[in-house]
Amino acid sequence: MRIYFTRHGETEWNKLGIIQGQLDSSLTKEGIDMGLRLREKSKDLHFDKVYSSDLGRAYDTAKLICPDREIIKTPLLREIDVGSWSGKNIKDVKTSDEILYKKYFEEPENYYRPDGESIYDLKNRVEKFFEERVYPNEDENILIVTHGVTIVAIYSLMENIPIEDFWSNRVRRNGEFNIADYENGEFKIIKKAPKNPVDSIWGDKMNTYDLIIIGAGAAGLSAAIYAGRSLLNTLVIEKFSFGGRVNDTPKIINYPGFKEISGRDLINEFRKQAENFTTNEFTYGTVKKIEKIDNAFKITTLRRKEFMAKAIIIATGTYAKMINVPGETEFAGRGVSYCSTCDADYFKDKDIHILGSGDLALEEADYLSNFANSINMIIIHEEGNFDGNKLEAEKIMKNPKISYTWHSKLEGIYGNERVNSLDILDLSDNTNTRVTSDGIFIFAGMSPNSDFVKDLVETDDYGFIKTNDEMKTSVEGIFAAGDIRNKALRQIVTAANDGAVASVYAEKYIRNRGAKWESIQEELWFIKGTRLTMG
Question: 421 pairs with which residues across the strands?
Fold first, then answer.
């Protein structure tokens, strides 16, 4: 048996694009090009079976390599199910990079998370895949398209090396196949794909900007538009997908100028306008730390890229709040969801529940009714009382697919491979009832993405950043905009307003500090009278 295995192509989270008229994918142009290079390399190869993880980016890459073949998707090959980290649910930590960085750089002695998978759990899954799909079929050649951390587990198995030896087998997204033979119960490595150059992964140069905007949702992109008008040299850093949670909103009817528009279409208009300014740059990254150096700021990302800026706007928004009931973490991604746009397809013709009664819960219930067979909403209030707007409440009350469990709480989530039942507490008489369910969408409020600045700027008790009307935080030169702020109303239109205000006052701050900034630049980056280009 010959085994070919490779890592999926580069991705842009939640960005759907049609590839060659046939494939919806989150792959970037670089990711698509890599898949096509692998297709070319595989022309003279024979695969009896093609496997991928059940995550879209691996499947999409496999489909690019073998467009005419059946791709067998399996959860055994997916990357680490990270559970929760620092209060974030699995939907908000979409890659293992943050978890792995913490494990291998900050906490090398700790390879286990009680509320998620460990790297040992991953290795066990990979071993199970080989036991079920590989060992019984020694006369077959197979292709595996999976994730970087899963490649690590595969090498750990094949070479009988500790999986803790992580970085020796990491970073293999370069359009090459890893190849191994399996015969008489033994593996023989034929080819290891070369690693990408270290500096292309981590970076080793300091880039400098007038303004850095962290987050590219409505607030961040609005700030970028105003920064472009002010001719500020600006960098926008986005962690997952441009637009953030706006992408998850199927229909918007309250944004001025549009009778009705999808969140994705609206945010694309934001982005096109922001990209129209040549002084704006955009990049992906997870900001890990902000340090103040005199009147400037140094930003470090999880992949050790560093940037300098005169001012910063934090527009990182929020993520869905977990309610911490039994089974919530265990079944995240397996019947527990926080995003209808992301997961509605998985619940087609299913009988599901929704927890919540605010604007988001009402809007998502309406959207999910296009997919699910039936929806029951678990609502803590007495009958007829919603937290959301009256118009949306009246609309869903007329929907024949939606029913209600009033004055009740969710107490537990249960199942085997996936969710199959829930415990619901009736607050009227304190009786607990177990009901069957194919899944639960939890819309219990939002938490701020502010962990990386919680020790730098002042926040409220919930972690939302305190600002004044000019979007200034407690640290001079740092501004905050959008849902990350401590404020009464969180809407797309108010986020766009915040971004505009923050950018205007950031520009004033930068202009007023110009002379001092030049002296700092001279101290840091002028050598023998010649300014260095740090980008």
Answer: 414, 436
How far apart are the C-alpha atoms of 71 and 53, rounded to whole Å? 10
Residue 85: count of CB within 10 angstroms of its CB: 17
**pLDDT tens, residue order, the chain (535 aa):** 899 999 887 765 433 333 333 333 457 666 777 888 888 888 888 999 999 998 778 888 899 899 888 999 998 998 775 443 333 333 333 334 444 444 443 443 444 444 456 677 788 899 999 999 999 888 899 999 988 878 888 888 888 877 655 544 454 445 778 889 988 888 888 887 765 432 222 233 457 899 999 999 999 999 999 999 988 999 999 887 788 778 777 778 889 999 989 888 999 999 999 988 988 999 888 899 999 887 789 999 887 788 999 999 999 998 888 888 999 988 887 899 888 877 788 899 999 999 998 888 898 899 899 999 999 999 999 888 888 888 889 989 999 999 999 999 999 999 998 999 999 999 999 999 999 999 999 988 888 999 999 899 999 998 999 999 999 999 999 999 999 999 888 889 999 999 999 999 999 998 887 534 444 444 443 333 333 333 2
SS3 344: helix
CA torsion sign for 379, 384, 387, 393 is: positive
Contact yes or no for 186/204 (Cβ under 8 A):
no
Whole-prediction pTM value? 0.54
| Residues 221-230: b if buried by 16+ CB within 10 A, e if exposed | bbbbbbbbeb
Coil vs helix vs strand at 346: helix
Q: Rounded distance, CA 535 to CA 529, Å?
A: 19
Q: Distance between CA atoms of 411 and 352, rounded to whole angstroms?
A: 16
Which two structure tokens, joined as six digits, stand for 396? 């869903």
Query: Cα separation of 254 and 481, whole Å?
Result: 20
